Amino acid sequence: MSRTLKRPPRAFWCRAMLWTVAALAVAFGAVQLVPYGRDHSNPPPTNDFRWNDAGAETIARESCYDCHSNETEWWWATSIAPFSWLVQRDADEGREHLNFSEWTGDLTPEAMQDAVDEEMPPWQYLVIHWGARLSEEEKRTLVDGFASSLQAN
């Protein structure tokens, strides 16, 4: 004996979809109440890295400074959770590892070369900032300019 399964009526699916959308809207509204990622103040620079290569500095400001300096440019979407959480975390971690506004002299040209070859800028930054993608020539200019600036300082 064969059993046929009845499909739920269309009204059931419409109601289920409405409840799902309503639940998602409430959840989205609730996460907006979390304060993390909302403080968009940049601390004042205490010891700026001095670039002596204008080309390398331009590349660094375009591709690195949002996370690796106290000159982060916060745009409107950085106020919307959960995106704001990701941006805040990236800026906090980036400043912790390297901060061109609070230069300590810890980074070597070799370490910078490794970073730009392997992981920097990260993919989630590149999704929004297309201009931050570095060509091989730009990577070389950045690292060489950084190395010459280190020697000059």
Helix segment count? 6
Q: What sort of overall outline do the alpha carbons produce when their principal axes are compared?
A: elongated
Biggest β-sheet: count, sense, barrel?
none
- Strand residue content: under 5%
What is the helix/strand order? Answer: HHHHHH
Q: In total, how many beta strands? A: 0
Low-pLDDT residue spans = none
Oligomeric state of this protein = single chain
Cα distance, first to last residue?
87 Å
**SS class:** mainly alpha
Helical fraction equals: 40-55%
Fold and architecture overview:
The chain is mainly alpha-helical and 153 residues long. The protein has one domain. 52% of the residues lie in helices and 0% in strands. α2 crosses α6 and α4 packs antiparallel against α6. It is elongated, with a radius of gyration of 23 Å.
Chart the SSEs and their pairings:
Elements: H1 10-31, H2 54-63, H3 83-97, H4 109-118, H5 123-128, H6 136-152
Salient structural properties:
153 residues; mainly alpha; elongated
Concise summary:
The protein is an all-alpha fold and 153 residues long. It contains six helices and no strands.
